[in-house]
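W.,

You were right to be curious about this one. When I first looked at the sequence I had no strong expectations either way, so I just let the prediction run and decided to look at it fresh. Below is the sequence, 323 residues in total, followed by the output.
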Amino acid sequence: MSATDVTGPATAASGRDVRRASRPDATDRTGLPGATPRRPRRRGPHAADVAYFVVGTVLALLFIAPVVYILFRSFLPADADAQGIGFDSLATLTLRNYTKVFDPSVDLRQNIVNSFIVAIAVAVLVALVSTLAAYALSKIRFRGSAIVFVLLLAPLVVPFQGLLTPLSIILGKLGLLDSLAGVVLVLVTLQLPFSVFVMRNTFDSIPAELEDAAALDGAGTGRILRSVMLPLSWPGLVTVALFGFMAGWNDLLSSVTFLSTDSKYTLPLALSSISTSFKIPGVPVIDPGLLTAVACVATVPVVVLFLALQRYYTKGLIGGSIK
């Protein structure tokens, strides 16, 4: 075999490499050696993106505007509405409303404790009962489970005001009138339909293969719920607990209806009595500035809790609304 035969393939390959290297790059539109390739043009924002941004901004402003107004109104005097609220009102800003709310003569410590007791109890009981009920309806198949689920959701279509009289009769027979336990029982009952709905859909979104694998390993129903299901359903669990806490903290109607002792009043009920005076006997007069200050004070714990648990709340609400 000659030297030409040995070097022939290598020479041909090197020739192809040289020709490939001498070709202009695909991005080099000039075709000249050493020319800088043109950068692709940046596309401007699509009309859909602009519309989404504009609509989202407008909706956000619509939701924020009432909150900003209430906060601004809480720093104005009682007669600000009669004089008209505008930019001139900036000269009349005052801390009078908040000073009256936190006045030492207005002792709200017991009312705050009562509200925390009600709110925490409602949150814990709602999370516990709805989790057990939703797991049974989602993972334990039995005849009539769909009917039971529909019956649990039925109270959602009944106005709460229409239940006040029968609830008062039931609590009276149980000896729970004028007690925080009675208020907690009523609020838990009202929160359960929505909470069971969210938790059931949360459990439905968890693959059944995980439960089957745990069952093959010898885990019972309680162990599967505790070790497999609950760690994967934290967003839904936090969501129902947060809704329960807000229901207990913001409740006014149940407290007004079922509580009659001042020492058992919750914070919303006590604050509403602070903002109402009787300058004319038998005629209640509401101080708008004091009322808005009271609303701002009562909102702080819920806002802080919501911001702290926002990521769980969003995931749980979305995951619990669809399968």
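Here's what jumped out at me. The two ends are 74 Å apart (CA to CA). And, maybe more interesting for your project: The mean pLDDT is 79.

Coffee later to discuss?

I.
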